[in-house]
Amino acid sequence: MALLKIARMGHPVLLARAAEVSEPTSPEIARLIDDMIETMIDAKGAGLAAPQVHVPLRLFVYRVPAERSAGPEDPPRETQALINPVITPVGEETALAVEGCLSIPGLRGAVPRPARVHYAGVDREGRPVEGEATGFLAVVLQHEYDHLDGVLYPMRMQDFTRFAFEDEMQRYGIAGPVQQEPAR
Q1: Which residues bind Fe cation (predicted)?
Q2: What is the CATH number of the domain that holds 67?
């Protein structure tokens, strides 16, 4: 396994739509997933999309650490891969979550997103995966899925007074935790 270089905001790979993975169970994809997991864990991330490591393919890895889970509907999750995902909102409710990104180091911002999503795709063995997610998992899935379409979280922000360096945000309480918002 190897640590991969993470593309930073400004690199064109982060602004393009990624291609479908034609052979999800190929040895090359298995190696990429292993390297992405190692890179994500080394960088202390909760998710990492293939375009973030300069590979324009529709796959990402993710996890929900115990300290980020929000109870029975959002339990901790071991690291997993989702290949050729499809993410769709469930219902009208939105949530405001403070997000960071390994491609935008040191910054965080408050991003409105659907509070509940349905996800589907295949895992690294090519088996179908699907479910519904809320809380931190829903945020991570949507954030990583955005990377596959060339979208970075600041592009989704509506209030740039809640966009700041991580250490300043913590020091001054600029943005709070995930908050539910009224249905729109």
Answers
A1: 101, 143, 147
A2: 3.90.45.10
